[in-house]
Amino acid sequence: MDGLKSIDELNNAFSKRRDELYGQKNDGKKVFGLFCTFVPTELILAADAIPVGLCGGKEVTIPSAEEDLPRNICPLIKSSYGFKKDKACPYIEASDIIIGETTCDGKKKMFEHMSEMVKLHVMQLPHFRDERSAKLWLEEVRDLKELIEEETGNKITEEKLKEAIDKVNKLRELFYKVYELRRNKISPIKGTDALKLFQMSYLLDINTITGIIENLINELEERVENNEGYSGKRILIAGCPMVAGNTKIPEIVENIGGVVVGEESCTGTRQFENYVEGYSIEDLSSRYFKIPCACTYSNEDRIKRLKELVDEQKADGVIYYTLQNCHTFNIEGALVEKKLKEVGIPIVRIETDYSESDKEQIKTRLEAFLEMI
Amino acid sequence: MDGLKSIDELNNAFSKRRDELYGQKNDGKKVFGLFCTFVPTELILAADAIPVGLCGGKEVTIPSAEEDLPRNICPLIKSSYGFKKDKACPYIEASDIIIGETTCDGKKKMFEHMSEMVKLHVMQLPHFRDERSAKLWLEEVRDLKELIEEETGNKITEEKLKEAIDKVNKLRELFYKVYELRRNKISPIKGTDALKLFQMSYLLDINTITGIIENLINELEERVENNEGYSGKRILIAGCPMVAGNTKIPEIVENIGGVVVGEESCTGTRQFENYVEGYSIEDLSSRYFKIPCACTYSNEDRIKRLKELVDEQKADGVIYYTLQNCHTFNIEGALVEKKLKEVGIPIVRIETDYSESDKEQIKTRLEAFLEMI
C-alpha cells in the first residue's frame, strides 16, 4: 500500500508554513499565538488575522525553561516556555500577541513568567460549567473580540464573523468525516498520520488545511472501497494534548501492531466536536464553553462522551495518556479508569513526558495491554 | 525561661476538642468541615453552626490515598483524602457537610473523588481578581449562605451576621497583636508555638481560641517587658499552609538557632490579615476575595505584601516553603525569589513533603542559609 498523498501534501505545507506566515505578516496581517483549543479562533479569522498554535512538543527547550520554572510541572508547559525563551519557535516569534487561558495551574502561573517576555492576554476560563460561569466566559469572549479589533484595527462585523464560523465549522465537519472513516474495520489511516493532521491544523492556514483534508477524505474513501488500510487491536487514546513534535504514544502503539482509531484530546475530538450553532457571539462562546476538558469541576460529560467514542470508533481499548505532572488529567484519570472498567471497557493509564528514556517500558506495558484486550 | 502557660492551655483545649465537638453535635449543632481559609466562617457561626478545619498534615494516611489518587500531587491533598478514606479524622467524621473550593487543580479534582464518600459543596473561587470575578465570588458566597441556612434550619439574620463578623474580626485583631509582639528584637514566642496557635484556631471553638490568645498576649507582653524570649536569625516562612501535624520547617529552623517571626501562609497572615470592613454580605465576600493566594492570576499584591512583612517583622531572611507538587506556590516561588532578591532580601526555597527522609538535607541547607544572612 502506498503512502497517502495528502499526508505528503501536509508535510509539504508545513515545511513552507514559516515563510508563508512571515509573508502574510509582512503584508500587514496580525498574528495571534495560541496555547489552547479554548480560544475561539473564529474571532481572529473574522478580523483577517492569523491564529497559530505555539510550539511545545519538544524536549530540547525544557532545560532552559527549568532555569525559571520548577522541574516537576508538565513537559508541555516547560517546552512552550523554553521555546519562547530560546526564541526557537517561529510561530511564537511571529506572534504579535499571545492569548493564554486559565485551564490549569501550571499554565496559569507560567504565564506570569512568560508575560515578562511577550505581550500576553490571558482569558479567564472558569472552573465550573454552570450558568454563572457561562456568563463570565461570554464576557471574556467579548473582551477578546474587542482586543482583536484593537490589535488589528479591523472591525469584526456580523458578516465577517458568520464567514469565519462557517469556515471553522466546515473544518470540524471534515474532521468528523475522517473519524467516521476510521470506524471501518480496516482503518484507512494510521493514528500517527491522523494525529499529525490535528497537530498541523493548529499551525497551517485554515484554507490550506481544509483543502488537504478534503483531498485526504477522497483518498481514504478510495482505500475503504478497496479494503485497504490498517487492522489490529483498535485503540482510542484519551487525555492530554499531543502537540506537534510529540507522537510518542501512537508511534509505539502502531509499531507493536495496534491501530489508533481516535484521540479524545485537544489534538483530536476536543478540537472539532460540537459546531457553533448560530452566528452570534453567544453561540460562539457557548460552543467553546462546552469543551469537556479535565480542567472542569466536575466533568461527567467527558466520561459519558468517552464511552460513546469507544463505541463509535469500535475501539478495543483505551490508552489514557497523561503528561507528567498534569494534575487535572491525572486525577481525573483515576475516575475515568473506574467508570470505564465498570462498563467493561479495557483501559491502561500511561503517564509520561517527552523523553526517550521510558519508551521501552511503555512498549512493554502496551504490548501486554494489546495482548490482553 | 518557663514554657508559656497559654500554650499548655492550647494543648489541653485541643485534647478535649473531639469530645466537645461531638457534644455540641449531640446538642443539635451542625458541623461544617473546611479545607481552606477562603471559606467565610462568619456565615457558619452566624447560623449557630460550627466551622472546623479538616486533618491533612500527617503522612500516615497518604498510602491509602495513593490507591485512588496519583502519587505526584501535594501531600496535603493526599493526606486529607486519606484521612477521610481511613475515617481517621474526628473533624471530618463529625462534619455534616464539607465545603471545598477551587483554589488549585489538585484539590478541585480530588473533590470529584471525595464527593463519592461525603456530602460536599464546592465554592468556585475564580482565577482572576477583577470586578467580574468579584461578582461571581459574591454569588458563590450568597449560595453558601443559603446552603448553610438550609442545612442548619437557622436564618442568618443581619444581627447574627454582625455578631459573627465582630467575633472573627476580634480574633484577627488578636493575631495581629501577636505578630506585633513578635517584632521585638527578642521574640517572646517560638515560631513552632505561634504556628500551633494558627493550626488550632482552625480546630477549636472560636470562643476558646480567643480566650487563649488573650491570655497568651498577656504572657507575651510580660516577657517583652522582662526582655525574655528568643533571639537568633529571624526568619519569615512564606508559602504553602502548614496544617496541624506539620511543624517540620519551623522545628528545623529553631533547632539550629533561628527564630521564626512570621508565617506568610494560610496558617499565618492569610488567616487574619484584612478585616471585614462592614456588616453586609458584600463586605464579607470582599474580605475573602482579597486573600493574596498563589491560586490567583496574577498575584503582584502578594509579593508587595511579602516585602512589607519582612520589614514589619524585622526578618533577616525568607524561607519560601512549598509542598511537593504544589504548582501554584511553586511556580510563583521563582517569581517571588527574583523580586525579593532584587530588593536585597535573602530567600531560600524549600520544596518538601511530610516525610522524615529529607529532614537532614533541609537542615544542612538551612544551616548554610542562616549562616549566610
What's the architecture of the domain at 24-158 in chain A in CATH terms? 3-Layer(aba) Sandwich
Q: Are there runs of chain A of 5+ residues with pLDDT below 50, and where? A: none
| CATH level 1 class label of the domain at 24-158 in chain A | Alpha Beta
CATH fold category name of the domain at 24-158 in chain A: Rossmann fold
Task: Write a brief structural summary.
Two copies of one chain form a homodimer. Chain A has a domain at 24-158: Rossmann fold (3-Layer(aba) Sandwich), CATH 3.40.50.
Question: What descriptive keywords fit this protein?
Answer:
homodimer, 373 residues, alpha/beta, Rossmann fold, four-stranded parallel beta sheet, 16 helices, 54% helix, 11% strand, YjiM-like (chains A, B)
Produce the secondary structure layout.
Two copies of one chain form a homodimer.
Chain A: H1 5-26, E1 31-34, H2 41-46, E2 50-53, H3 62-65, H4 75-85, H5 90-94, E3 97-101, H6 105-114, E4 120-123, H7 131-152, H8 158-182, H9 191-201, H10 206-225, E5 234-239, H11 248-255, E6 259-264, H12 269-272, H13 281-289, H14 300-312, E7 317-323, H15 327-342, E8 347-352, H16 359-372
Structure commentary:
By secondary structure, chain A is of the alpha/beta class. The mean pLDDT of chain A is 97. Chain A has helices at residues 5-26, 41-46, 62-65, 75-85, 90-94, 105-114, 131-152, 158-182, 191-201, 206-225, 248-255, 269-272, 281-289, 300-312, 327-342, 359-372, and strands at 31-34, 50-53, 97-101, 120-123, 234-239, 259-264, 317-323, 347-352. Chain A has a 4-stranded parallel β-sheet with strand order 2-1-3-4, with helices on both faces. A 4-stranded parallel β-sheet of chain A has the order 6-5-7-8, sandwiched between helices. The first copy, chain A, is 54% helix and 11% strand. Chains A, B: This is 2-hydroxyglutaryl-CoA dehydratase D-component. Chains A, B: InterPro entries: FldB/FldC_alpha/beta, YjiM-like.
